[in-house]
Amino acid sequence: MSLQSKVREWMRTHREEGTALLQSLVRLPSTQGREREAQELVAGMLREMGLAVRVWEPDGEALRSHPYFYSPRDRFAGSPNVVGVLKGTGGGRSLILNGHMDVVPEGDRGQWQHDPFSGEVADGKLFGRGATDMKGGNVSMLLTIQALRELGVRLKGDVIFQSVVEEESGGAGTLAAIMNGYRADAALIPEPTNMRIFPKQQGSMWFRVTVKGRSAHGGTRYEGVSAIEKSMIVVQHIRELEQARNSAMTDPLYAGNPIPIPINIGVIRGGNWPSSVPDSVVLEGRMGVAPEEAIEHAKEAMERWMERLEEKDAWFAKTPVSLEWFGARWVPGSVDPGHELIAVLSSQYQEVTGKEAVIQASPWGTDGGLLTLLGDTPAVVFGPGVTHVAHYPNEYIELEDMFRAAEIMALTLVQWCGLEEE
Amino acid sequence: MSLQSKVREWMRTHREEGTALLQSLVRLPSTQGREREAQELVAGMLREMGLAVRVWEPDGEALRSHPYFYSPRDRFAGSPNVVGVLKGTGGGRSLILNGHMDVVPEGDRGQWQHDPFSGEVADGKLFGRGATDMKGGNVSMLLTIQALRELGVRLKGDVIFQSVVEEESGGAGTLAAIMNGYRADAALIPEPTNMRIFPKQQGSMWFRVTVKGRSAHGGTRYEGVSAIEKSMIVVQHIRELEQARNSAMTDPLYAGNPIPIPINIGVIRGGNWPSSVPDSVVLEGRMGVAPEEAIEHAKEAMERWMERLEEKDAWFAKTPVSLEWFGARWVPGSVDPGHELIAVLSSQYQEVTGKEAVIQASPWGTDGGLLTLLGDTPAVVFGPGVTHVAHYPNEYIELEDMFRAAEIMALTLVQWCGLEEE
């Protein structure tokens, strides 16, 4: 029996166990600050599989002084990182498997058909907050290690299993792991790519634009200047910057993506009285950063562009908008599509699914940006689950994909790290 | 000495007293629900002047069933109306003097140079919430009666002095006075017209438009539909309705007013996460109603116009906006510019100031709409103070105008009601 057949057989016979494991993780609502229980569960499993496990709460003091630290908090009590190392026999390439355990809040429960923390299974799908982003991917990682251990496979290279916190808030968990010295020849992050392979990923950061007007009574509104009307010019102006930036994107990995690096305006609020002319409107949004672009370059593009608003309307010459960068930020990342890990992953994908791998650039950021940029560890994103259910009510994952991903990852590990034959 | 000279002299010698009276009223912060003390002060003065005074809290139960009742509350404990009647000797025309005692809240105190409830005087101006809207006008009314009484003037027609509550919230105080049977041959309301005469007044009502989009992750924003972008189409669409309605306004009383009946959009809010495509935006505004227009006609114009949004963007055919009428509403009003009270007021204005009276249509509503429409009492608005400081920090009134207005009103009363010669 080939190793591939053995892995597939192992996955088939561990279906119930794997499903129950994901259910257990979904039932532990590991929103920010509440990750401990889920992390302890993972740490326990890794110890049982014989990995050398370290569990620690990131040091807020040390993180705070790091230029890439972004988080709404700097105390991580109750939010431990977990790293388990599976030492290789030597002479092979090492790999980091990185997944985050934090999930975003469930939002309005009234919009959920199932309890968001019940892990209910229906039609081959498991429902719940974090099912796709990314506890499903975490279970794929765990099944990968467990299958190889139980099948007696010994790898030449080290496998470093990372279950981190804070991905949803800017990556402080992975940053803490990097600051603790964890490095590898490459990294694999099973975020929900719907089994596509992402060597490149968009970065992003949040901005806030404040548009000023001049107040007046609504009955004589011509005496005022409506910040709502002026904000329409700003929205249009931002659209034009988005168009210019995207028309310059020639990377074939973005072929078919209508807006590779979007500038999303997510929030608008202004005025406080129906019969007054509003004197202020705030726009908040997310600016995409191209995989090879420096964050500072993108910031500067936006800042310069805002200065050109006065070409659209003289009002802005006297009353410029203010631009702030606030909240979250995700570092972009880029790995050469010719990188050996992509080749290995693609061939194993084809082996397992019979279909050609899809290689694209990611429309969103992951902790892979930090690993690639700061951790000297080229990170590739590949995992089960579909993005469009992430962060929304009725999030789910197709269980079949979770097991398929585990199978592909197990075979990738063997080929990447090397098999120690007996 | 002519009566005019006597009135002028009286005003000159009562300058300190009048200023102190306005100061006392401004120092009683008569915001909604807290009008009692200021109203008791007025009632006491009217009694001293020999008027038959009635003080009563409007009956919420009775008001609630009236089709023109608009208020955020239906209990008026602590908010009495005051009406004082000065019986004429007979054979003359009667006049209602109507002023509201309620003031809007002071807002952000940090933006006030003086304490908003101190009534500080500087450079001939008295500062404070309500100084212009409309305690200054109320003092003009009080000085008018006091001067005529002290000068021994006896009028043929009745004068009905009304100090009402709730004008700022839709006119429930004046409605209660109408429901209590008070009527006259005409009414004069000294709201801040900057001494212009307004036979016509714009009505207004508040609306809320909810624009729907479709949510998506900001990184793949092309999968969603931005309610912010769709709301820009709605704002533009409303502008076009405003243009159409205003280009049809040929009333010469609106000559020189660039937007006689504006549609103001005062509030916008939508989305709740910078990196999500917003699925909902709410617009709140104030729609002006022409003096001779029925409220229902204006509503229908807006409703029909919203249905035509789909001509601008097919999105609205499947996802129509919702339109609600909420909150406050002020009835429009129109008195024939040839009305005798206008002629009297104009001639007395010229007599006192040496300048020709300015007759215009008002860009905002007052309780005059209710008096004209429901109270069989044609109401004309004329008073001291300038609108653009009303409802804003550092509201003030020019004291000189307050005394001038009182002088003009006293002489108007004599001419309108008729003088009983001894």
Automatic annotation (TrEMBL), chains A, B:
<keyword id="KW-0479">Metal-binding</keyword>
<dbReference type="InterPro" id="IPR002933">
    <property type="entry name" value="Peptidase_M20"/>
</dbReference>
<dbReference type="InterPro" id="IPR011650">
    <property type="entry name" value="Peptidase_M20_dimer"/>
</dbReference>
<dbReference type="InterPro" id="IPR050072">
    <property type="entry name" value="Peptidase_M20A"/>
</dbReference>
<dbReference type="InterPro" id="IPR036264">
    <property type="entry name" value="Bact_exopeptidase_dim_dom"/>
</dbReference>
<keyword id="KW-0170">Cobalt</keyword>
<dbReference type="Pfam" id="PF01546">
    <property type="entry name" value="Peptidase_M20"/>
</dbReference>
<comment type="similarity">
    <text>Belongs to the peptidase M20A family.</text>
</comment>
<dbReference type="Pfam" id="PF07687">
    <property type="entry name" value="M20_dimer"/>
</dbReference>
<keyword id="KW-0378">Hydrolase</keyword>
<dbReference type="GO" id="GO:0046872">
    <property type="term" value="F:metal ion binding"/>
</dbReference>
<dbReference type="GO" id="GO:0016787">
    <property type="term" value="F:hydrolase activity"/>
</dbReference>
<dbReference type="InterPro" id="IPR010182">
    <property type="entry name" value="ArgE/DapE"/>
</dbReference>
<protein>
    <submittedName>
        <fullName>Peptidase</fullName>
    </submittedName>
</protein>
<keyword id="KW-0862">Zinc</keyword>
<feature type="domain" description="Peptidase M20 dimerisation">
    <location>
        <begin position="201"/>
        <end position="312"/>
    </location>
</feature>
